[in-house]
Design goal:
The chain is 42% helix and 17% strand. The strands form two sheets. It has a seven-stranded parallel β-sheet with strand order 3-2-1-4-5-6-11, with helices on both faces. Strands 8-7-9-10 form a four-stranded mixed β-sheet. It is globular, with a radius of gyration of 20 Å. The chain is of the alpha/beta class. Strand 1, helix 1 (11-24) and strand 2 form a beta-alpha-beta unit. It folds into two domains: 2-228 and 336-393, Rossmann fold, CATH 3.40.50; 232-332, Dihydrodipicolinate Reductase, domain 2. The protein contains 16 helices and eleven strands. Helix 6 (125-139) crosses helix 9, helix 8 (166-174) crosses helix 10 and helix 9 packs parallel to helix 10. Bound molecules: nicotinamide-adenine-dinucleotide. Nicotinamide-adenine-dinucleotide binds next to helix 1, strand 2, helix 12 and helix 15. Nicotinamide-adenine-dinucleotide (NAD) binds next to helix 1, strand 2, helix 12 and helix 15.
C-alpha cells in the first residue's frame, strides 16, 4: 500500500518510513505496531505491512529523505545508526513535493524559515489545490492513504458561510479567500475529493469542518483524526478511568510538558501552541464527567530535541474527604511513540475503505487525543471499540 505524508521531512514521518523499510527488510521486529496485535489478525489481507511513500513539504525541498533522516538522526540518535545505512537506497529515492503553508501561523512561517510554498510562487487557491491534486493523483492508487504530520497550525475561526457546506468551501477556493482556509484543510479537501482516505495526526483543523465531513460522505471515503495520542495524553486517558472506577474525586490535574526539536520550536509560538493545549487539556473532564481544575502547559526546551518529558501531578480526594496525590513522569522519544501509529492508522483506514466505510471512522478514536464525533475518551473502551469494529467488519 502507499502512504502520502503531509510533512514528509518531519521526524515523525521520516521515522515511520525508516521503520517500515527496516521491517520489510527483516531488520527490526514489529514492536510498537498496534495493527500487529493478534486481535487484528487478517488485516494484512486488506492493508499489508509494506509501503511506498510520498509527500508534501515546505522546507529542504532540494533534499531527499535519506539526507533528512540523517539530519534528524544527528540531533536525536533515536535508533541504531545501522538502520539508516541499511535503508539508505530506498530513502534516497523519496523526495517531497512543494506544499502550502496558508494560515500555518508564525510558528511555521517564522519558526521553520527558510520555507518554500506554492503561494509564494503567486498561485491562487484554485491553482494550489490543482497542484496538490496533481501530486497526489500521480502517486496514488486504490491502496493509498494520506496522513497529516505537518507542523501544528493555529485554530481558524469557524465561518459557517465557508466551512459549513461543500459549496461554501468551494466558493472560498474559487474566490481565492486565503483568509478562510488553512493548509491542512486544503490537503484534506484534495484527498477526499480524489477518494483518498485522510487522517489528521495533528491538532490542526484538517477535515474537521462540516464542509469536508459532508464531502467525505458524498464521495464515500473514510477519514479520521485529530492529533495522535502518543505520550502524556495516552497515560492520562489510561489513568483517569481508574479514578472514576474507584469513585475517587479528582480535584486538580497538572500536566507540564517540555520538548525541543522542530515541533517544540513551532509550539513555542503562542498561536500554534493554543491548538495543541486545547487538544491535550479536555480529555480528563471528558472521562471523569466533571471538570477538575487543570493546568496544561507545553514549553520549548531546545537541548532535549525530540525527547519529550511530561510531569503530571494529580490531586484527588478519597474516603473521609482525605486528600492525596499522585505523580508521574513520562519521558519518551516523541517520534518513536508516534511513527508506528501513523502506519497503524493508514492500515485501518485502508481496511475501512475496502469495507465501504465512509465519513468519520469513530472507531479509530483510540489513536487520537481529540477524536471526531465521539464522546468516548477512555482508552480501554476505545481499544475494545476498535477490536469489535475490526472483527465485525472483517
Ligand atoms: N509524539 C509525537 O511526535 C506527536 C504526537 C501527536 C501529534 N504530533 C504532531 O505531528 C506533527 C509532526 O510532528 P513532528 O515531531 O514530526 O514535527 P516536525 O516539526 O519534525 O515535522 C513537521 C514537518 O512538517 C513540515 N510542514 C510544516 N508545515 C507544513 C505544511 N503546511 N505542509 C507541508 N509540510 C509542512 C515541516 O517542514 C516539518 O518537516 C506535529 O504537528 C505534531 O504536533 C506529534
Amino acid at each position: 500500500m502507499k502512504i502520502w505524508f503531509f510533512g514528509l521531512y518531519g521526524i515523525v514521518a521520516s521515522t515511520a518510513v525508516v521503520g517500515s523499510i527496516a521491517i520489510k527488510k527483516g531488520l527490526i521486529n514489529r514492536t510498537g505496531l498496534v495493527s500487529e496485535l493478534p486481535e487484528f489478525e487478517g488485516l494484512s489481507d486488506y492493508a499489508p505491512l509494506n509501503f511506498e511513500f510520498g509527500g508534501h513539504e515546505i522546507r529542504a525541498l532540494d533534499s531527499n529523505l535519506y539526507e533528512i533522516s540523517e539530519e534528524h538522526w544527528e540531533l536525536n540518535k533515536h535508533f541504531d545508526k545501522k538502520l539508516l545505512e541499511k535503508t539508505k537506497n530506498e530513502l534516497s529515492k523519496i523526495k517531497a513535493q512543494k506544499g502550502t503553508a496558508i494560515n500555518c501561523g508564525k510558528g511555521v512561517l517564522e519558526g521553520l524559515k527558510p520555507i518554500s510554498t506554492l503561494e509564494e510562487d503567486g498561485l491562487t487557491l484554485k491553482e494550489i489545490v490543482e497542484r496538490i491534486e496533481e501530486d497526489l493523483t500521480s502517486f496514488a492508487d486504490e491502496n493509498t492513504v494520506a496522513i497529516n504530520v505537518a507542523s501544528t497550525e493555529p485554530n481558524i475561526t469557524y465561518d459557517e458561510e465557508f466551512h459549513g457546506s461543500i459549496e461554501g468551501f468551494e466558493k472560498a477556493i474559487r474566490e481565492d479567500r486565503k483568509d478562510k482556509v488553512t493548509a491542512s484543510m486544503l490537503y484534506a479537501y484534495a484527498c477526499l475529493r480524489n477518494g483518498i482516505p485522510y487522517a489528521n495526526f495533528t491538532p490542526s483543523v484538517g477535515s474537521n469542518i462540516p464542509a469536508l465531513k459532508k464531502l467525505a460522505e458524498k464521495v464515500g471515503v473514510p477519514h479520521a483524526g485529530n492529533d495522535g495520542k502518543t505520550g502524556e495524553t495516552l497515560v492520562k486517558t489510561t489513568l483517569a478511568p481508574m479514578f472514576r472506577y474507584r469513585n475517587l474525586h479528582v480535584l486538580g490535574w497538572m500536566g507540564y510538558n517540555i520538548l525541543g526539536d522542530l515541533d517544540g520550536k513551532v509550539l513555542s509560538y503562542e498561536q500554534n501552541k493554543k491548538s495543541k493545549i486545547s487538544s491535550k487539556d479536555k480529555v480528563v473532564g471528558k472521562i471523569l464527567g466533571y471538570s477538575p481544575y487543570t493546568i496544561t502547559e507545553i514549553n520549548f526546551f531546545p537541548s532535549l530535541q525530540d525527547n519529550k518529558t511530561a510531569f503530571d501531578f494529580i490531586h484527588y480526594e478519597g474516603f473521609l474527604g482525605t486528600k492525596m496525590k499522585f505523580y508521574f513522569i513520562w519521558d519518551a522519544i516523541d517520534a518513536i511513540v508516534a511513527a508506528p501509529l501513523t502506519l497503524d492508522i493508514a492500515r485501518f483506514l485502508l481496511f475501512a475503505k475496502k469495507k465501504g466505510v465512509k465519513g468519520v471512522v469513530r472507531e479509530l478514536s483510540f489513536f487520537f487525543k481529540s477524536p471526531m464525533e465521539t464522546e468516548e475518551y477512555n482508552i480501554h473502551s476505545q481499544f475494545q471499540e476498535l477490536v469489535t469494529w475490526f472483527k465485525e467488519l472483517r
